[in-house]
Amino acid sequence: xxxxxxxxxxxxxxxxxxxxxxxxxxxxxxxxxxxxxxxxxxxxxxxxxxxxxxxxxxxxxxxxxxxxxxxxxxxxxxxxxxxxxxxxxxxxxxxxxxxxxxxxxxxxxxxxxxxxxxxxxxxxxxxxxxxxxxxxxxxxxxxxxxxxxxxxxxxxxxxxxxxxxxxxxxxxxxxxxxxxxxxxxxxxxxxxxxxxxxxxxxxxxxxxxxx
Length: 211
Fold this sequence. Notes:
alpha/beta; Rossmann fold; 7-stranded mixed beta sheet; 6 helices; 25% strand; globular
């Protein structure tokens, strides 16, 4: 199991409930993980000291690769809360949501396109909205180089060829998000292979108090 999915729940990153948008969802593993967490919590099988998992009101999952989309659509055919769609993140419309997740995807886009996606994600989040991203930290030395080589190997195995990568140090990602008004927390992934994976937890400002 990817340690990121465990950290999302162990650290209580996600809100109690909400509308989710998962960008670059693959086969919608995150959706399956969140719904399974709900079931385990309701059944009383939940780790002591962990916050309850979020109640998913709706989850839109967007993926470019048609085969992954088809598999995910079959898996969630009887789950009305989950909608898996094929589309290009750089051009697809983002509906208003409470939480956006984007894991291991942004570095495939040229820098200008990355900034455009960040701006559109910010626009889709209302007051207090949450963005959780995982990026490779280009300043992490040999860990980053290992991550990059494994990433390229995976894309080759999946038939995508040698995709160019547009990577940034984690500090630069955090600065780009702060420029858009987010409050940003940088969390290094614990456990798993020694990659340069870094989770960015970015919160949009809360609604101003009405006096």
